[in-house]
Every structure is written in C-alpha cells, then in structure tokens.
Amino acid sequence: MEYLDETLVAQLPKLTPYILDWYDRSARVLPWRSTPTPYRVWISEIMLQQTRVEAVIGYFERFLAALPDVPSLAAASEETLMKLWEGLGYYSRARNLQKAAKIIMQDYDGQLPADFDALCALPGIGEYTAGAISSIAFGLAKPAVDGNVLRVLARILASGADITSPKVKKEFTAAVQGMIARDRPGDFTQSLMELGATVCLPNGAPLCLGCPVAHECRAFRQGRAIDLPVKPEKKARKLEQRTVLVIRCQEKLFVQQRPNTGLLAGLWEYVNLPGHYTLPQLTADLVKRGLTGNFIHLKPSKHIFTHIEWQMQGWLLNLDGDPPSPGETGRWVTKKELLEQYTLPTAFKAYTNVIKNDL
Length: 359
Description:
Layout: H1 6-9, H2 16-26, H3 31-34, H4 38-48, H5 53-66, H6 70-75, H7 78-85, H8 92-107, H9 116-120, H10 127-138, H11 147-156, H12 166-179, H13 185-198, H14 218-222, E1 238-249, E2 252-257, E3 268-269, E4 271-274, H15 279-288, E5 293-304, E6 308-319, E7 330-333, H16 335-341, H17 349-358
C-alpha cells in the first residue's frame, strides 16, 4: 500500500469482533433496520446521503407508505415524488431513484439485482451505496466506505493521508474488505457506520471512552483523534443576495417553475431576484409593469447550499385587480394547492411559513 501502513492494516481484522459486539449492544433502533429488504435499504441509503438520521426517519416512513416498492416508485408522478421528497434537498437523488426504478422494472423484473456491479450501473448508486445494499440486504461480503468509515479507520490507524483522495479511499476500501465478517457482512457494514455516527464523531471531540476499539486506536493513544482525518480546506462559499417576492392577488398566490437544469432544477419557487431591492426600486418596477399594490417587508432569511449561500430579504406583495397572466412557467394557486401539491425548496421555508401561518 502506498498511503496506509500495511502492517497496521493487517491488524484491523482482529477489531471486527469488538465492533460487532458493541453494535449488538448499542445499535440505534431505526425503521430501515427492522426489515432490511433491498428496496428499504436502497431508499434509506439514498435519503441518508448528506442528511441526518433524525431528519430522515419521518421522510422514510412517509415515502414507504406512499411508494412501498419498485413498481410504485417507477409509476409515481413527478408531483408525487417531489412532494414526498420536499425538504430533504438534493432533489436529483429522488429523480435518480425513479430513473433506477424504471430500469429495474425493465431489466430485473422489478427486483433490485443482487450484484454489486449491476447495482453500481443504476442511476444514483455509487460504490458506497452498492456496497451497503449488497452487504445489508443481500448478505454479500462487499465493503461500504463512507465518510463515517473513513474517519473511524483514519483515527484507528492514525493516518495522515487525505481521505478525499480517490487513491487513498481505494486503500481504505481494501482495508475494510479485509475486516468484513463473512457470516455477518450487513451487521459489520452497519456497525462501522454506527461507530462513526455515534462515537467517532466529526466536527468536535470524539467520544473515545465509549469506543469498543479505543485500546487499539493509535490516534487515541497519541492524543490526535480530534486532528484526524486529514482533509483539504473547503473553498469559501459564494455569497448571493436575493430578493424574494411572495405575490398574492384575490386569495391566489403566484409560483413559478425553475429551469430543468441547474440549482433546484424543476422545482417551484416564489419570484426571486438577484440582489437586495429597496422599496422604491420594487415600487418603480411594479409601475413599469402597469400593476398596483402594496409591499409588506418580511423577515430576512438565509439558506446554505453546498457551495453557495443565499442571503435573502423578503416582501409580501398584495396586488390590486385581477391576477395578471402567469406566463409560461408561472401559476396562480390557492394556499391549499400550494402547500399540498407544489414542491418548494427548503431555501424558501421562511416564506412558506409566512403563508402557512399568516395568509
């Protein structure tokens, strides 16, 4: 191995019994663990990408109640799928789920394939997710290496290698492959994830005194656990100012659909303009359009995407007269329709709450 100490890696399999014993005693009760069918494991793993477990539980249960299997997911309407995903973010995950479901219906008779490479070929499924499904749902000895697993092993080995490097990750994956309990591959996969999620924590001091393998952890012995793993510094987020307009006319609210590509592709939104507009600027723009109404200032809000931060100020615009033409991408909808049928990104949650609570 180029980046990891082969002698230390060779000692890792002896830690597996300790980790599994700890998992048997300490594993959280989670809905997808109770019945780990391939479909349930798949949906949960996709939801858990970039999302906390606590936030996923409710979404998972609602999603499975509405779309309990591959055929129902493949046949779901865009509106149904997006509404079920509303608030989870990274909406391409949901679209890829449905793309994959349609392929599974066509090529695999509606059943996820019990094959690592075939799983990797499906939209939205990478090596980690394929490894998780293979081991947890099908009992195959395939590794699933995510950020939690990389952090645990980097600390056990006191490795200063950059865990974001594909070459380094490949070596860690080989190390995990050697640790898999052949009689319990799914439990092993989940035990390493669980250790990283609940004990060997990111962004702060790990709970080393509760770790089942602290006695073999080089970073713990060296007092370096908080400094590992090594990752390059993140680039500063781009800050964007936006002005959000919640437009109401005759008890109808205006929404428009975003383009089918780019950030928040295909979702519905309130009118939002680049920059922070003053009240005189907004009033002048209204006059130019031949419209009359009044503006009410709303509380500012912000939303952080992976690489962008929106700093938003909001206005409620009450238009006089009849609703103007909504244009090709816009619609006038009732409050009930907006809240029950249209998928609005979490970025606009503060303004959706104004509609829920005050309008």
